[in-house]
Batch of 2 targets.
Target 1
Amino acid sequence: MIRSHATTPIEGQKPGTSGLRKKVRVFAQPNYAENFIQSVFDVAERAPGAALVIGGDGRYHNRTVIQQAIRMAAANGYGRVLAGQGGILSTPAASHVIRKHGASGGLILSASHNPGGPDEDFGIKYNVANGGPAPEGVTDAIYARTQTIDRWLAVEASDVDLDTPGTTQVGDMAVEVIDPVADYAALMEKLFDFDGIRRAVAGGLTMAFDAMHAVTGPYAHEILENRLGFAPGTVRNGTPLEDFGGHHPDPNLVHAKALHETMMGPDAPDFGAASDGDGDRNLIIGKGIFVTPSDSLAMLAANAHLAPGYAGGLKGIARSMPTSAAADRVAEALGIPAFETPTGWKFFGNLLDAGMATICGEESAGTGSDHVREKDGLWAVLLWLNVLAATGKSVRTIAHEHWQRFGRNYYARHDYEGVDAEAAQAVMDGLSERLAALPGTRVGDLTVGRAENFAYTDPVDGSISRNQGLIVAFERGSRLVLRLSGTGTEGATIRLYLERFEPTDGNLAGDTTTMLSDLVSAAEELAHIAALTGRTAPDVVT
Ligand code: G6P
Ligand code: ZN
């Protein structure tokens, strides 16, 4: 029986770059999740009887929201729900399941790399039929609906058994509890040379994968250990926990410190990798060598043809603006277009749908391709493994040979977190006003070539996104980028991106900190971060 529950609008339900993210306490309030989900159902484009995918990263509150979403979907005319067993679906796997099963969309319950638990974060994101995050027009409509909503609908039904695969009926709707790994693993087997990787593993290739007690555990166990034959124990922290073991499931050198130490130590395996809460980010570390996400994108693009799924070549390479230009040099060598988009995976969607780009990546540890419409942590790991197996080379050799061929983009990101919002804005405004006067001037030993406030015109739909970050480009390929984070939760986070290009005959074996030191001074001279915020050093360097 369908029941209509009276409700009133709740403020602040505007989805951000990756859906609605709030503390669990906020989501657990009466009607909070229900209002948002009903707003999604009220505006989502779908035919009667359409299928909906539901799954999450396993964090605290995941199951509660899934059960309620199922009762609501049944009351809102869906014909079928596909739910991941145990409430689990990684973000890229959910994207694939939506596409493969022709669903009209999906609810992905995650707050990505943010901590989980009763006092931590939760999130709901709606993805549309192409498997990608709802475009702004849709999220705007959802938000508008949250401001007028007066009822939500649910059938009266008890909880579904999420732990046993199979189909149950909830009202007139079928709920299929599916193996969260099966479809995704099958897709990976199509894209990559699993036989070749298995042979390399049998021949001694070793790796360590840190699942950070988050969603990729079951995927990594199945794919890396069961299918590819890596030794048991290769996957660390492989059981998803509701609080991620109390850690930040963020695969960077700070939060994946243990893995980094292993990889820099005497007993390091050949390859190290990690993924985040919902499985879309990746960290790549070779024996004794960290590969920046920007370099990883470039190196994967340069070698992608070695994997069966990309043997026909790439149509184009896209990167977000703050990501280093290393990938552009690969695109140039391959004779394919390079695209520079604003920060945020959603900007790649149109390029992928239009067949203009095949591989995309961001400095924020996201890499992926047109196989789904999300970034994909394990996909990047498997492409690396495919390249290592096909070449028989180490990560270090691949990196060094890459730099010898294309030159090297030394790169670092400095984050100033929890900065007073007004001070952060003053930094941005100050530099923004000085931009026009900068070209041709000298800062230390550097000469400014181009200075601009980045704006993007989408080549597919012509839409324009302005104010996407400040760029000061110096002669010979060095660059500073300054932008405010769009995902921070407390105060403002200033991100300063530093990049220095060394050509093939330059210093390719330098220490990153040393190579970037004159850019750090130039940044202070130009942006006055210390002077305006009182911060003399970044909180995080990645
Ligand atoms: C999310 C998006 C990424 C984006 C990142 C930027 O993770 O999924 O596509 O790169 O946010 O975060 P920022 O904090 O720099 O705005
Ligand atoms: Zn994520």
Note: The pocket of zinc ion (ligand 2) is lined by residues 112-113, 276-278, 280-281 (CB under 6 Å).
Target 2
Amino acid sequence: MISVSHLSKRFADNEVLKDINLNIKQGEVVAIIGPSGSGKSTLLRCLNLLEKPNTGTIKIGSVALNSEHYHNKDEINLRKQSAMVFQHYNLFKNKTALENITYPLIVGQKIGKDKAKQQGLSLLERVGMLPYANQFPITLSGGQQQRIAIARALAVRPKVLLFDEPTSALDPERVHEVLQVMLQLAKEHITMIIVTHEMEFAKYVADRIIFMANGVIVEEGPAKSIIDNPQHELTQRFLRQIT
Ligand code: ADP
Ligand code: MG
């Protein structure tokens, strides 16, 4: 359902992604691991077109964008195919939990206010945040804010959810509640790409793990075999360092 071919991205002289090729099936959960600076965030940001690739093709569902035959319409359509969950939640601070979810529905998707509210409440319930619907982000814990961010990402019914280190900014005792929500989504067969340092979680939840270093995919395979039996020296070294 997602296919990336010959994707490259550079910032000035720094080639951050080098000829990335990737295919992801509907309902698949893919974890991306790798050292800091290896290009994991840039890859997610390219999929969501927060960054424009220099070369290559990205296809999600039936929408494709080729860096050589560029159409604005494809760009707008492709962006709608995915939704991102960021490390620092990026909620609207001046909106309540519920408004954070209904705003993109009302403004972006032109859904009526009542219907948006119904959908928003049901999404809050799904992430266990219904009791907090009318609270502002600042009054909530990091874990609670991240669960709202996940509900907001789900609201636009994307083909794929992109998570960029969703638990890295959380207090340790708050990590679990966010991983729990993500586990639930995985069980519902929502397609997800998750950049994470939570190896136990990745091993348990991901169908596949991709190890990146220096802008390339070094090794990929079933989660358990990558973690328990990495083949490449760089993967072995990385896993030794973080566990
Ligand atoms: P990771 O998420 O794996 O830590 P990133 O994708 O954030 O890695 O970064 C990969 C490389 O790209 C790093 O060298 C980083 O400094 C560089 N980089 C990322 N974003 C930008 C940007 N907007 N401008 C310039 N360089 C960037
Ligand atoms: Mg990153």
Note: The CA atoms of residues 9 and 49 lie 12 Å apart.
